[in-house]
Amino acid sequence: MESAIVVGAWSLVSVIGLVVLTATVMGFRARRRRRAETIAEARSDARRWYELLGGQLSTLTAGGDEAAASALTDAAGCHELAARQLEAATTVDEYQYVRRTATEGLRHIGTARTRLGLVAGPQGPPPVDRDGRPMYEEAYHATPASAKARGGDDRYEQPRGGIAAPGVVSPG
Fold first, then answer.
1. How far apart are CA 129 and CA 82, in angstroms?
2. Which of 38, 111, 162, 172 has an alpha carbon 20 to 30 Å from 70's alpha carbon atom?
3. Are 68 and 116 contacting, i.e. CB atoms less than 8 angstroms apart?
4. How far apart are CA 96 and CA 74, in angstroms?
5. Using 50, 70 and 90 to split pLDDT, how confident is the model at 152?
6. Residue 136 neighbours by CB distance under 10 Å
Protein backbone atom coordinates (compact mmCIF):
# COMPACT_ATOMS: atom_id res chain seq x y z
CA MET A 1 0.00 0.00 0.00
CA GLU A 2 2.88 2.31 0.80
CA SER A 3 4.39 1.93 -2.70
CA ALA A 4 1.03 2.87 -4.26
CA ILE A 5 1.05 6.13 -2.31
CA VAL A 6 4.63 6.88 -3.39
CA VAL A 7 3.78 6.16 -7.06
CA GLY A 8 0.63 8.26 -6.75
CA ALA A 9 2.59 11.15 -5.22
CA TRP A 10 5.22 11.01 -7.96
CA SER A 11 2.49 10.88 -10.60
CA LEU A 12 0.88 13.97 -9.09
CA VAL A 13 4.24 15.80 -8.98
CA SER A 14 4.88 14.78 -12.60
CA VAL A 15 1.48 16.06 -13.74
CA ILE A 16 1.95 19.37 -11.89
CA GLY A 17 5.44 19.72 -13.36
CA LEU A 18 4.11 19.03 -16.86
CA VAL A 19 1.34 21.63 -16.41
CA VAL A 20 3.84 24.25 -15.17
CA LEU A 21 6.23 23.48 -18.04
CA THR A 22 3.43 23.70 -20.62
CA ALA A 23 2.20 27.02 -19.20
CA THR A 24 5.74 28.43 -19.22
CA VAL A 25 6.37 27.39 -22.83
CA MET A 26 3.01 28.81 -23.94
CA GLY A 27 3.78 32.08 -22.13
CA PHE A 28 7.15 32.38 -23.88
CA ARG A 29 5.56 31.67 -27.26
CA ALA A 30 2.83 34.26 -26.69
CA ARG A 31 5.39 36.86 -25.60
CA ARG A 32 7.57 36.12 -28.64
CA ARG A 33 4.54 36.37 -30.95
CA ARG A 34 3.47 39.72 -29.42
CA ARG A 35 7.02 41.06 -29.78
CA ALA A 36 7.17 39.93 -33.41
CA GLU A 37 3.81 41.59 -34.10
CA THR A 38 4.97 44.82 -32.46
CA ILE A 39 8.18 44.84 -34.51
CA ALA A 40 6.25 44.12 -37.72
CA GLU A 41 3.89 46.99 -36.95
CA ALA A 42 6.79 49.35 -36.23
CA ARG A 43 8.54 48.24 -39.45
CA SER A 44 5.38 48.87 -41.48
CA ASP A 45 4.89 52.30 -39.90
CA ALA A 46 8.52 53.30 -40.51
CA ARG A 47 8.38 52.09 -44.11
CA ARG A 48 5.14 54.06 -44.70
CA TRP A 49 6.78 57.33 -43.53
CA TYR A 50 9.95 56.58 -45.51
CA GLU A 51 7.92 55.97 -48.68
CA LEU A 52 5.85 59.11 -48.11
CA LEU A 53 9.07 61.13 -47.91
CA GLY A 54 10.39 59.48 -51.08
CA GLY A 55 7.15 60.21 -52.92
CA GLN A 56 7.27 63.86 -51.90
CA LEU A 57 10.91 64.16 -52.96
CA SER A 58 10.20 62.66 -56.38
CA THR A 59 7.56 65.27 -57.21
CA LEU A 60 9.32 68.50 -56.22
CA THR A 61 11.93 70.70 -57.85
CA ALA A 62 13.25 73.88 -56.29
CA GLY A 63 13.16 76.03 -59.40
CA GLY A 64 15.35 79.04 -58.67
CA ASP A 65 14.60 79.32 -54.97
CA GLU A 66 17.79 78.75 -52.94
CA ALA A 67 15.93 78.22 -49.67
CA ALA A 68 13.67 75.60 -51.28
CA ALA A 69 16.72 73.92 -52.85
CA SER A 70 18.42 73.81 -49.45
CA ALA A 71 15.29 72.36 -47.82
CA LEU A 72 15.03 69.71 -50.56
CA THR A 73 18.69 68.83 -50.10
CA ASP A 74 18.11 68.41 -46.37
CA ALA A 75 15.04 66.27 -47.09
CA ALA A 76 17.04 64.10 -49.50
CA GLY A 77 19.69 63.65 -46.80
CA CYS A 78 16.99 62.54 -44.36
CA HIS A 79 15.65 60.12 -46.99
CA GLU A 80 19.08 58.57 -47.51
CA LEU A 81 19.66 58.29 -43.76
CA ALA A 82 16.22 56.75 -43.24
CA ALA A 83 16.98 54.19 -45.99
CA ARG A 84 20.17 53.12 -44.20
CA GLN A 85 18.41 53.05 -40.83
CA LEU A 86 15.51 51.03 -42.27
CA GLU A 87 17.87 48.49 -43.76
CA ALA A 88 19.68 47.97 -40.46
CA ALA A 89 16.69 48.22 -38.08
CA THR A 90 15.64 45.16 -36.10
CA THR A 91 13.99 46.61 -32.98
CA VAL A 92 10.98 48.83 -32.32
CA ASP A 93 13.26 51.67 -31.13
CA GLU A 94 15.32 51.50 -34.32
CA TYR A 95 12.16 51.63 -36.46
CA GLN A 96 11.01 54.65 -34.44
CA TYR A 97 14.30 56.37 -35.32
CA VAL A 98 13.57 55.70 -39.00
CA ARG A 99 10.15 57.29 -38.56
CA ARG A 100 11.64 60.33 -36.81
CA THR A 101 14.19 60.76 -39.59
CA ALA A 102 11.50 60.51 -42.27
CA THR A 103 9.21 62.99 -40.50
CA GLU A 104 12.13 65.40 -40.18
CA GLY A 105 12.58 65.09 -43.95
CA LEU A 106 8.87 65.75 -44.43
CA ARG A 107 9.21 68.96 -42.44
CA HIS A 108 11.96 70.05 -44.84
CA ILE A 109 9.60 69.18 -47.72
CA GLY A 110 6.94 71.35 -46.07
CA THR A 111 9.39 74.24 -45.92
CA ALA A 112 10.31 73.81 -49.58
CA ARG A 113 6.66 73.57 -50.64
CA THR A 114 5.81 76.71 -48.68
CA ARG A 115 8.72 78.60 -50.24
CA LEU A 116 7.50 77.51 -53.67
CA GLY A 117 3.99 78.79 -52.95
CA LEU A 118 2.48 75.32 -52.57
CA VAL A 119 0.44 73.89 -49.73
CA ALA A 120 2.88 72.57 -47.13
CA GLY A 121 1.71 68.99 -47.65
CA PRO A 122 2.09 66.05 -45.28
CA GLN A 123 4.70 66.76 -42.65
CA GLY A 124 3.96 63.93 -40.31
CA PRO A 125 3.40 64.03 -36.59
CA PRO A 126 5.41 66.31 -34.32
CA PRO A 127 8.65 64.74 -33.09
CA VAL A 128 8.23 63.02 -29.74
CA ASP A 129 10.56 61.80 -27.06
CA ARG A 130 10.74 58.12 -26.09
CA ASP A 131 8.04 58.67 -23.47
CA GLY A 132 5.67 60.23 -26.03
CA ARG A 133 6.12 63.89 -25.05
CA PRO A 134 6.75 66.50 -27.78
CA MET A 135 10.43 67.38 -28.20
CA TYR A 136 10.96 71.08 -27.64
CA GLU A 137 13.93 72.78 -26.09
CA GLU A 138 13.46 75.43 -23.42
CA ALA A 139 16.09 77.75 -24.90
CA TYR A 140 14.15 78.10 -28.16
CA HIS A 141 11.37 80.52 -28.84
CA ALA A 142 9.36 81.53 -31.87
CA THR A 143 10.83 84.38 -33.85
CA PRO A 144 8.85 86.67 -36.12
CA ALA A 145 10.21 86.64 -39.64
CA SER A 146 11.19 89.49 -41.84
CA ALA A 147 9.27 89.86 -45.05
CA LYS A 148 11.73 92.48 -46.35
CA ALA A 149 14.25 90.08 -47.92
CA ARG A 150 12.05 89.16 -50.86
CA GLY A 151 9.16 91.53 -50.47
CA GLY A 152 6.96 88.60 -49.55
CA ASP A 153 6.09 86.23 -46.76
CA ASP A 154 9.30 84.92 -45.19
CA ARG A 155 7.76 83.37 -42.08
CA TYR A 156 9.87 80.26 -42.60
CA GLU A 157 13.24 81.92 -42.78
CA GLN A 158 15.36 82.11 -39.65
CA PRO A 159 17.19 85.37 -38.87
CA ARG A 160 20.59 83.72 -39.49
CA GLY A 161 19.51 82.72 -43.00
CA GLY A 162 18.73 79.08 -42.18
CA ILE A 163 15.54 77.33 -43.11
CA ALA A 164 12.86 76.41 -40.61
CA ALA A 165 9.62 74.55 -41.10
CA PRO A 166 6.32 76.16 -40.10
CA GLY A 167 6.15 76.37 -36.35
CA VAL A 168 9.84 75.61 -35.90
CA VAL A 169 11.57 78.02 -33.64
CA SER A 170 15.03 79.44 -33.74
CA PRO A 171 17.52 80.21 -30.96
CA GLY A 172 17.26 83.66 -29.60
1. 18
2. 172
3. yes
4. 20
5. very low
6. 12
Contact between 127 and 100 under an 8 Å Cβ cutoff? The reply is: yes
SS3 157: strand
Which of 156, 159, 172, 171 lies closest to 74, judged by CA? Answer: 156
Q: Strand, coil or helix: what is 125?
A: coil
Residues 6+ apart with CB under 8 A from 91: 39
pLDDT digits (tens, 9 = 90+) for 72-131: 999 999 999 999 999 999 999 999 999 999 999 999 998 898 888 887 776 555 555 556
- Cα distances (Å, whole numbers) of residue 132 to 18, 60, 135: 42, 32, 9
CA–CA separation, 172 vs 133, rounded Å? 23
| Alpha helix (H) residue ranges in the chain | 2-59, 66-88, 92-115
CA distance 146 to 155: 7
Cβ partners under 8 Å of residue 126, min gap 6:
134, 135
Rounded to two decimals, the pTM is: 0.59
